[in-house]
From TrEMBL, chain A:
One GO cellular component term noted in the UniProt record for this chain: cytoplasm
Keyword Cytoplasm: yes
UniProt record similarity statement: Belongs to the TBP family.
Name listed for the protein in its UniProt record: TATA box-binding protein-like 1
Ranges in a coiled coil: none
Keywords: Cytoplasm, DNA-binding, Nucleus, Transcription, Transcription regulation
Nucleus in keyword set: yes
CDD domains for this protein: TLF
Organism: Chelydra serpentina
From TrEMBL, chain B:
DNA damage as UniProt keyword: no
InterPro entries: BRF2-like_C, Cyclin-like_sf, TFIIB, Znf_TFIIB
Protein name in UniProt: Transcription factor IIIB 50 kDa subunit
Keywords recorded for this protein, A-Z: Activator, Metal-binding, Nucleus, Repeat, Transcription, Transcription regulation, Zinc, Zinc-finger
Length: 186, 415
């Protein structure tokens, strides 16, 4: 298998984290009383609200900042965030949906070959860090993309980055390095 | 000193250098006349050259550094002494510690973390000089929590921008086996259990290399593998008396801990050895099982490259027989005999041979655990843009009705 040939790699996005602001103070007790599917964590001062249709969990603070996790694409994240803002509006708050931003994207990708991690680490020294006593995978950081990849010996790679495009380019960048450290026939 | 000095008083030429209360003097041996005197108050420069009192032991250091730094420096020095590290390591570790403690992320942390920081600096120094020290050892010396140590260690690497080479397994084997108490017979250890260190280390290293070629080492803790390999090596060097000795008993005799994953590693190693044994002609007739394969480890290790190639499929069975035949003329005469036999086995008993073969993969792929994978987006989901209109009915499901709210506040009232 040549590294240059086009290999279709399935990148499965498992989580998208986004934030938005409601620009108004939110009464958490009221949300906890009148909202269904709500958990009120009084000790830390936040409310967890779960939506069903886009499977999303939102953390709501009284300052009006909301963090949504659990979406499987950037569009779905926005979809869920807007529904959440609408729900808060229905509860009686003067919500304005602003400052929506996708903060983190987590994706998983499977390489069709196994990878020899000690060899890979040796070839990619400053960026790759491998501590078998701590974690079974190599942690590879791509600074310009602000992406982190966890490379397992089975060929499975977990990528986290600021958006979906960064995640896709991180996988593209790592492929040739991972390819050259793949398991060869003995 | 040019030329012999003469005492101005009595004229003798026997002048000795004497340190009187750490103050150097030139004194005439005959009459006691003091020719020259050192300064009563010396500077730091002088004291360092004279090496009378080291800076770290004088009060000078205590006045210039804060108590936290002093304590940390002392701990680094103590740790280096306990581990019998060379002086160079101590200096490097001290330099790292002093750099780290200045950093805001380590300056205002709990005492526990500062203690762990000391351990991290020593650990990083050892790894950079390829001195095989494991995190487990440092954590046990400092009575530190392993997870906290891990987080502080990663923080140190990031903040100080250090590059740490990988742990060398060969060195780790040598160091770990040094702590075993099996190398001479004593009250606890009968003569037949005592073993020569050199032979045991060599064979353990070979078994560990075999393990790393067959995916047993990647991503796992190194110490359980070394312990399991040491046990197999020890048994195989004199199988007659030692087959009955169990793994826990071996560890007790050696005076070392038995880490929990070591049993699994032992099982995996035995599995690999059994597969290799099935490829050796003279072992196939002997019907080795996991208890008796230990006796033949010496032979298996000698021919391991050939045996690994033939016992694990590389995907294509045609390739397999070709490489086996190709290897025949290259390896020793015995192995050539084997390959001819193996080839003979292939057309005749291809069914049996292929069922024995197994792809050379990490153990977690051979026995995969069932994992719930989130399904990929369906086509309708993929068409979401995020800006669709929101219907009221959709939102109603997330709001409580009046009755529900009253019930809820009643329930809360009982709180």
């Amino acid at each position: 298998m040549d590294a240059d040939s086009d290999v279709a790699l399935d990148i499965l996005i498992t989580n998208v984290v986004c934030v938005f602001r409601t620009r108004c103070h939110l009464n958490l007790r009221k949300i906890a009383l009148e909202g269904a599917n709500v958990i009120y964590k009084r000790d830390v001062g936040k409310v967890l609200m779960k939506l069903r249709k886009p499977r999303i969990t939102a953390t709501i603070w009284s300052s009006g900042k909301v963090i949504c996790t659990g979406a499987t694409s950037e569009e779905e994240a926005k979809f869920g965030a807007r529904r959440l803002a609408r729900t808060l509006q229905k509860l009686g708050f003067q919500v304005i949906f602003t400052d929506f931003k996708v903060v983190n994207v987590l994706a998983v990708c499977n390489m069709p070959f196994e990878i020899r991690l000690p060899e890979f680490t040796k070839n990619n020294r400053p960026h790759a860090s491998y501590e078998p006593e701590l974690h079974p995978a190599v942690c590879y950081r791509i600074k310009p993309l602000r992406a982190t990849l966890q490379i397992f010996s089975t060929g499975s790679i977990t990528v986290t980055g600021p958006n979906v495009k960064a995640v896709a380019s991180a996988v593209e960048q790592i492929y040739p390095f991972v390819f050259e450290s793949r398991k060869q026939i003995l | 000193m040019s030329g012999q000095r003469k005492c101005p008083d009595c004229g003798s030429s026997e002048i000795v250098e004497d340190a009187h209360y750490a103050q150097n003097q030139l004194v005439c041996a005959d009459c006691g006349f003091i020719l020259t005197e050192g300064l009563l108050t010396t500077t730091f420069q002088d004291e360092e050259h004279l090496q009378e009192v080291t800076y770290s032991r004088s009060t000078g250091q205590n006045e210039q550094l804060s108590r936290c730094k002093q304590r940390g420096i002392k701990r680094v020095q103590d740790l280096c002494k306990v581990l019998y590290l060379p002086a160079v390591f101590e200096e490097t570790a001290l330099a790292y510690f002093q750099r780290a403690i200045e950093h805001p992320s380590f300056h205002l942390v709990s005492l526990e973390k500062k203690e762990i920081l000391v351990g991290c600096c020593v650990f990083v120094t050892c790894r950079q000089h390829n001195w095989p020290l494991t995190m487990g050892t440092i954590c046990s010396l400092l009575y530190a929590d392993k997870e906290l140590f891990a987080s502080v260690y990663l923080c140190v690497l990031k903040e100080l921008e250090l590059d740490v080479p990988a742990l060398s397994l060969t060195d780790l084997v040598k160091t770990h086996l040094n702590s075993f108490k099996l190398f001479q017979s004593s009250a606890n250890i009968p003569a037949k259990f005592a073993e020569d260190k050199g032979k045991m280390v060599a064979r353990t290293i070979q078994i560990v290399e075999l393990a790393s070629e067959t995916w047993l080492v990647t991503g796992r803790h190194p110490i359980p593998i070394v312990t399991a390999a040491a046990y197999l090596a020890w048994q195989s060097l004199q199988p007659v008396g030692r087959l009955t000795c169990t793994f826990p008993r071996f560890c007790k005799l050696a005076g070392t801990d038995l880490p929990p994953p070591a049993h699994l590693r032992l099982k995996e190693l035995n599995d690999i050895l059994l597969r290799m044994a099935s490829q050796l002609a003279w072992l196939r007739v002997l019907n080795v099982d996991k208890k008796t394969v230990v006796k033949h480890i010496g032979d298996l290790l000698q021919h391991r490259h050939f045996l690994l190639k033939s016992s694990f499929s590389s995907g294509d069975s045609e390739d397999q027989s070709a490489t086996a035949a190709g290897n025949g003329p290259e390896s020793s005469p015995r192995a050539a005999g084997c390959s001819a036999r193996a080839e003979g086995c292939h057309p005749g008993g291809k069914q049996k041979c292929s069922s024995v073969q197994r792809p050379l993969l990490p153990p977690c792929l051979i026995n995969p655990r069932k994992r719930l994978r989130t399904a990929a987006l369906s086509p309708s989901d993929q068409a979401i843009t995020g800006d669709e209109a929101i219907s009221d009915s959709e939102i109603e499901q997330y709001l409580r009705s009046q009755e529900e709210m009253q019930e809820f506040s009643k329930a809360q009232a009982w709180h």
